[in-house]
Amino acid sequence: MTISPARAILRALHEVMAASTSAQAKLNAVVNIVAEQLSSEVVSIYLLRDGVLELFATKGLAQAAVHVTRLAMGEGLTGVIAATREPLNLAEARAHPDFAYKPETGEEIFHSFAGVPIVRREASVGVLCVQHVDPRQYDDVEIETLQTVAMVLAELIAGAGLIDDVAAARARSAASGPVRLAGLKLVDGLARGTAVFHQPRVVIEHTVADDIEAERARVYGAFTRMREQIDGMMAQAEFAGGDTADVLETYKMFAYDEGWSRRINEAIDTGLTAEAAIERVQQRTRAKMRSIPDPYLRERLTDLDDLSNRLIRIVSGQLGSAARSGLRGDTIVLARNLGPAELLEYDRRVLKGVVLEEGSLTAHVTIVARAMGVPVVGRVRDLRTTIAEGDELLVDGGAGTVLVRPSAAMVASFAATSALKARRQAEYAKLRDLPAATRDGTRVTLMMNAGLTGDAAALETTNADGIGLFRTEFQFLVSATLPRRERQTALYRSILDAAGDRPVVFRTVDIGGDKAVPYMRDGDHADENPAMGWRALRLALGRAGLMKAQARALLDAGAGRTLDIMFPMVSEPWEFDRAKRIVEDQRAWLARTGHATPAAVRYGAMIEVPAIAETLDVLLPRVDFVSIGTNDLTQFLFAADRANPALAERYDWLSPAILRFLRRIVVLADAHDRPLTVCGEMGGRPLEALALLAVGVRRLSITPAAIGPIKAMIRSVELGPVREAMTRWLAVANPQVRSDLAALAAERGVEVG
What we know:
The protein has 4 domains: 4-164, GAF domain (Beta-Lactamase); 169-198 and 329-417, Glucose Oxidase, domain 1; 201-320, Orthogonal Bundle (Enzyme I, Chain A, domain 2), CATH 1.10.274; 431-747, TIM Barrel. By secondary structure, the chain is an alpha/beta fold. It has an 8-stranded mixed β-sheet. The protein has an 8-stranded parallel beta barrel with strand order 15-16-17-18-19-20-21-22, surrounded by 5 helices. Strands 3-2-1-6-5-4 form a 6-stranded antiparallel β-sheet, with helices on both faces. The protein is 45% helix and 16% strand. The longest helix is centred in the first third of the chain and has 25 residues, at 212-236.
């Protein structure tokens, strides 16, 4: 099938919509037109009425079923399409687990099935389906044609008043009382404010073009204006340089992508208006991206969505998003997703939180929100059917929850939690200049983890002893292309400048596996298990150019100072040796060519792979320090992916297996007089940190927010009795270490939260 049927259908639908016939007659005409142009044996239209999908028109099924066959949202194939807002394309409909047979339709002779949602104001209001007797898979062009017809149908049925009134649905929701929504924790923090929908999508009222060339000119003009806006935004961005600059560079790259504009022009050629063409391409891109397993590429869909929404607003003349409407009072912004540029448009004085239907920890908007200090909860389903504009919301980014229309008791509890958190922070702030020492005199070095340019400011706030882990890969993850050496140097130098006399441990880039970047792909290394695949030091040693460029950048930044470099995921001593040799070769080259070099370079290794523990006696004499990465080490020891919800809570950091393993490493490091630091989430939890101290750990590198609670725990404990108890428990592999340690802490007044 060529693209011509789509254009023919649009022309015919234009005539149908202009005719002075009833809405039912128009729907009957639509199914006949689609059936003829697609040579389809069945074409059916289901519309949402009173919360149920009702068969409104059909060509090929029994006419007696019209206005009789009804399906709940999620019921049958049609209900699944409406509930998920995703197309279905099946060669054998009965093989699908959600197939539901309706005998009155006479559809038992049909095998193949395809359907697309009819969407209005981001909500499913119906479904358009086709069926054939012979089993067959519908091709992409046919599905795209159905989606185009569905766009026109949305306009037709809205104009005819055939769909549920959205405002009434929201009013019903608003009257339903308090609701607690759960989502994904993206950015920690508490926020209270009024719900405001970002409203990036324009409701497209006209989908069929009268003059194709006029629509094309509108799109060209909109592209020019959008690119000017983005260039201006980059020039005036509040965050000059750093990670946010990398984010906006990627955003700009998409805005200037010629392939995107070409696809919009092709959609206009089928007879769509400029607005409808942009949305059609947006739908197609989103469908394709959802099927891509690469998490990085999937997250870049956020930027494309943002740009598509911006372009539609420009071309339609409806330029005002909520960010430009003069928000009054504390605001919680709601959206399916946000691009980084859209978030930056909001006034930070009134923007208190963000709630997204999508979103992830690696999305650009999350990175920018974290830098802005705005709490974010993602993956909250069906915002528009649960929350009405103006509803009061309580957002807890740390718990990943949203309270909608909270009761007075809920508000009071939230206020008490906020006040308690503020009091705790004030108490922790009093500890800023006090040493992290136990009551019996054991001094603990408390350092912080970082990865963003702005993180360095937390050194002064927390008075941490330094940066024990700077994750250099962040700059690579938010860049559209491999970061130039000069940009890497500028970032590393800025961190060293901010740290002053305090040490900074730079971990060389840990990308690959589940931290995929599009500009570094290797078809020979497709990982079924990314966490244990071609990543980190393995990847860097396989790409000497990457390692050399980063080494040069680090050495340039550290000129005249002491530079600490750590290699991730070292599995065998020779890997450390080879990585160190690459850096030393670059250092020697700089010296020969008259460049300034660091006064000293100290080299460390991350202990994350259990195998390296068996050769520590060989490795330790070669390194200056070691760090234990507890997140990866735990999953490798237990062969359990902590990202898997079924396993995340099954294996405990306070398991005797983990603690015995850690103690063995501590003893070996002490014997070789090598500093050992524990990095990762384990060290940032008071009870777990207490266990680490009990097995001999004396250096922790944790998130800045955890430094206050951990210092409070350290200063409240007499370590000797805890160490003795831990020795007894581990000798018999006591499976109740967590409960016994918590009981001991409570008995001795140790602050573990």
